[in-house]
Fold this sequence. Notes:
Strand order of the largest sheet: 7-6-1-8-12
CATH architecture: Alpha-Beta Complex
Strand content: 5-15%
Number of helices: 17
Shape: globular
Amino acid sequence: xxxxxxxxxxxxxxxxxxxxxxxxxxxxxxxxxxxxxxxxxxxxxxxxxxxxxxxxxxxxxxxxxxxxxxxxxxxxxxxxxxxxxxxxxxxxxxxxxxxxxxxxxxxxxxxxxxxxxxxxxxxxxxxxxxxxxxxxxxxxxxxxxxxxxxxxxxxxxxxxxxxxxxxxxxxxxxxxxxxxxxxxxxxxxxxxxxxxxxxxxxxxxxxxxxxxxxxxxxxxxxxxxxxxxxxxxxxxxxxxxxxxxxxxxxxxxxxxxxxxxxxxxxxxxxxxxxxxxxxxxxxxxxxxxxxxxxxxxxxxxxxxxxxxxxxxxxxxxxxxxxxxxxxxxxxxxxxxxxxxxxxxxxxxxxxxxxxxxxxxxxxxxxxxxxxxxxxxxxxxxxxxxxxxxxxxxxxxxxxxxxxxxxxxxxxxxxxxxxxxxxxxxxxxxxxxxxx
Length: 435
């Protein structure tokens, strides 16, 4: 197995504002509707009408360009990186992404970071190619991890715990697992406190094996590129949704028969013990994949031929990506609630980079509205998507005022208070915004 002896601090990041495209709008809409209908029929906790791109769109339906309170999602995500201790950032995206990025940085500055842009390869819109585009510009050394992050996490602003995790030194990949019990400890007693609705397909045991944790796949990937097989990363990532990671693991193992032999003892131990332990804690629990984290670390490290680890966290922003209309609406409702509570300072109350984001909205968005078709009438644009996705309502009225029936849900108030408290804790350490 390839050993790891990395620098503990991560200083480089690739952020992807790129996404695959379907051949037609009809195909993309059909897939999105079918998924949502299955979730509704199954009584799932999280319903997702996915935001998908299509080759024949007049307006590129790129989710990173969607507006939250009049500001592109990508600007929130980029602002999180600017407000961190990162030193070098590579942005991967479309020509419209570059227009937004250039205007954003002209107004808010780079906060001392080196920022480079690389145009997405529309013929190869996959994870490995996106990573490699960024990797070529960053030129990471053999003893450092690079943070790879999708750009649809607008409120993931507490990055320092990722960038300086002690495990970064001894592992070549770290998976930040989204754990329901850690993020929403009171969801059993108070369902409204679970303000991010997701479906958790995976299970693991707590550290002392006296509790069962519901898991969702990670959104952050600190990786040592020189020590990882890129094809394995792509296969695991592309199959990670909806509980399909077990199939990806099996297929990966079959491609590496010598490694499979090393993994077998851990797999056998898992088969003999895990279900029994689950039944003692939560009898008859249904899940698509489950494993002790200790066994998973050992087995996956042998499969990947390099040390890896997982860590669990208590931050809902790590799981709160914008894959679907429902996710966009969560953040639109949150920011409207904050501005209704605080007036013009509402965004600053819940996001450490909020003051700069609001400044960009005032100074930069009027020009972008004339250059990017999606922004010429965003309320009407998103209303039309809601109609084709048969949502049963639209989020904006004729006067372009936000009127979603979900804006008054109790979950929105919980989200507001959580982010306000989190933001207050981080503000004394957030010195980059005013540089």
